[in-house]
Amino acid sequence: MMHITSLHSKMLRTSVLLCLFTAVIWCSAAPNPSEEWWRDSFIYQIYPLSFKDSNGDGVGDLNGITSKLEHIADIGASALWLSPIYVSPMVDFGYDITNFTDIDPVFGNLADFSKLVTKAKSLGLKVLLDFVPNHSSDKCSWFTKSIQKIKPYDEYYIWKDAKIVNGTRQPPNNWLSAFQGSAWEWNDQRKQYYYHAFAAGQPDLNYRNSQLNEEMKNALRFWLNRGVDGFRIDTIPNLIEDSRFLDEPKIPNTGLPDTDSGTLEHIYTYNQNETYDILKTWRAVLDSYNGTKKMFLTEAYTTLAYQMRYYEYGSNIPFNFMFMGELNNRSSAVQFKRTIDRYLDAIPAGQSANWVTGNHDQGRVASRFGLKRADQLSMMAAVLPGVGIIYNGDEIGMVNRPMSYKETLDPAGCNAGPSRYNTTSRDPQRTPFQWDSTTSAGFSTNTKTWLPINPNYKTLNLAAEKLASVSHYSIFKKLVTLKKLPVISKGTTQIILVGYNVFGVVRRQAGQSPVVLLINFNDVSTLADAASWMNVPDQMKVYVSSIGSNIQIGATVNTNRIILPAAASVILV
Fold first, then answer.
1. What is the CB-side half-sphere exposure of residue 386 using CA atoms within 13 A?
2. Contacts from 218-225 at CB under 8 Å and sequence distance 24+?
3. What is the C-alpha to C-alpha distance for residues 303 and 161, in angstroms, rounded to an integer?
4. What is the pLDDT at residue 138?
5. Beta bridge partners of 562
6. Which of 4-18, 169-183, 267-281, 296-310 is predicted with the least confidence, judged by mean pLDDT?
7. Which entry of 96, 215, 299, 394 is annotated as an active-site residue?
């Protein structure tokens, strides 16, 4: 096991309106609902480096995760999804892979992984892995052989000759890396440039080569044979590039430096049609396995039309990132309603919606939407039809930990420089899980952890929330229980604006009491007449309410005159 100082050294070396309208959405039955175990459940994302350290080196590991699986079972999640645990030089914290079928010693070994899977299954939990098919590490043996033009590896990556301008060598085109600068890196041994959509240490794989794709399918088989129930596919829209290698159009007046990929319209490096055909070949691999149905979750920050196509080609859950893009803490109730309606209307018949509330790449919910709204997205994910995806720590209301440039490890932040690092670094949301108030928040016995612990851990931690009468933790547990009720899994859905800037959802099923969600998007206390606008009983009980709302759980309220404090959310039953 690598010591924490070695890991730091390894990483630091490589890092641089008032309106009212109602929509009714009928939840379609799944083609084989009994097989699709994920429907109307929550999936829990674990960031392994930061979940639990079992050996005192300050870095999270597989045995640490195994020791805390009871927590995931306790909150009622159906599955855990692990961010990358494969062999890696850690240029991008495991997203640069040298071996797709082995465990990095930082996390443990294959025996440790087997123990994790066995215990998870004993607790009724499914196990999902990150599948990172867009690129490998530049330390991968495939890449070394590709440099040497050893077949078949010579075509496993995207190599192009230099463009000579006035006698000077230049990259083949203007494509830019997501981590700043040209997406082309010169290799002096092969005398060509290779393409990397992300860090230079992450050369893109060439999916126009069928042998390369067979290698990746074999990686899927390797983990399926070890009990994995599915995969989240990383950055799938980057998978293949236009074969003409044309310059991408510049976007005028972005205010960004010319080195930033946000200055280009990515019409040749993103959302290519061939991507879906590749996904279909991977779907065939999953479907060849008997027993529990295997699932794909696909990460694609893209338009609704592109997102919906993933269902057709084999994704069970094309991630819905509306809470991280179109909708934010400045959005109105109208904007939430219109965006959610449009999304639910677009989902193909029989397919499942999903609601990603947070992840390792975006600021924490409580920081993105504010402390008063920390429970809002989980409440929406629970009441709306479909799968909820929650990021570890959000169930206890963890917040971003501000980082100095000196503390920053994420290449997305380091490469942006001291003046812009805090707009691109993902370190603040990746700090270790806060288990209790002991040394290093109970994450590690080591006082030095790979990323600093948020100093608020003394009061904000799981142990304290378990003792509190009301907490983010207790609220989330109730939300997971609610999501399993037939009125949620089988009922109809109405999304309604209740007066000015109050968002409402009502779920109904014949013979069952309705479930009502109300969210006050105003910064002041607001009186809402839910009984009239939503056609619900005049009196209902408070199932849960957001922290700070002072709406007592279990209280009976008059729905024709319910007072919602500023930014408050409440679920009534």
1. 28
2. 218/101, 219/100, 219/101, 219/131, 220/131, 220/282, 220/285, 220/286, 221/285, 222/100, 222/101, 223/101, 223/129, 224/285, 224/286, 224/289, 224/294
3. 33
4. 98
5. 528
6. 4-18
7. 299
Q: For residues 71 and 436, give the distance between their C-alpha atoms in angstroms, rounded to a whole number.
A: 13
CA distances from 109 to 113, 249, 509, 553 (A): 6, 45, 48, 45
Look-up of token digits 């074999």? 218
Q: Which two tokens stand for residue 558?
A: 């008059």
Question: pLDDT tens digits, residue range 208-266?
Answer: 999 999 999 999 999 999 999 999 999 999 999 999 999 999 999 999 999 999 999 99
Q: In this predicted model, which residue has the larger pLDDT, 66 or 3?
A: 66
Residue (of 331, 326, 333, 400) closest to 356 by Cα position: 326
Length of the chain: 573
- Rounded distance between C-alpha atoms, residue 183 and residue 537, angstroms: 59
Q: What are the E-state strand segments in 38-167?
A: 42-46, 79-82, 86-87, 99-103, 126-131, 159-160, 163-165
CB burial of residue 510 (10 Å; 0-12, 13-18, 19+)? exposed
Active site residue 312: no
Instruction: Say which DSSP state 203 is in.
Output: P
Q: What is the pLDDT of residues 47-67, one digit of tens each?
A: 999 999 999 999 999 999 999
Question: Can you read off the two tokens belonging to residue 366?
Answer: 């409580």
Residue 554: which region, alpha, beta or left (left: phi > 0; alpha: psi -120 to 50)?
Answer: left
Q: Which distant-in-sequence residues (6+ apart) come within 8 Å of 170 by Cβ?
A: 162, 163, 164
Of the residues 57, 104, 130, 234, which is catalytic?
234
Q: CA 175, CA 261: separation in Å to the nearest integer?
A: 8
Q: How confident is the model at residue 35 (pLDDT cuts 50, 70, 90)?
A: confident
pLDDT on residue 34: 65
Residue reference for tokens 């479930």: 515
Yes or no: say if 355 and 386 are a contact pair by the CB < 8 Å rule.
Answer: yes
Are the C-beta atoms of 432 and 86 separated by less than 8 Å?
Answer: no
Strands 184-187 and 86-87: unpaired
Identify whether the C-beta of residue 111 lies closer than 8 Å to the C-beta of residue 217: no
Structure tokens at 6: 């070695």
Residue 135 contacts residue 198 (beta carbons within 8 Å): yes
241 is catalytic: no
Render 62-82 in DSSP notation, one character per residue.
Answer: HHHHHHTHHHHHHHT-SEEEE
Q: Say how many C-beta atoms besides its own lie within 10 A of residue 539's C-beta.
A: 12
Q: Distance between CA atoms of 15 and 132, rounded to whole angstroms?
A: 19
List of domains in the chain: 4-17+33-134+210-238+295-476 (3.20.20.80), 141-195 (3.90.400.10), 491-572 (2.60.40.1180)
Written as six digits, the tokens of 270 are 């993103």
Judging by DSSP bridges, how do beta strands 42-46 and 492-497 pair with one another? unpaired
CA-CA distance, 284 to 126, in Å (whole number)?
Answer: 20
* Number of neighbours of residue 118 by Cβ within 10 angstroms: 12
Sequence-distant (≥ 6) Cβ neighbours of residue 248 within 8 angstroms: 173, 174, 175, 264, 265, 266, 267, 268, 269
Average pLDDT, the chain: 94
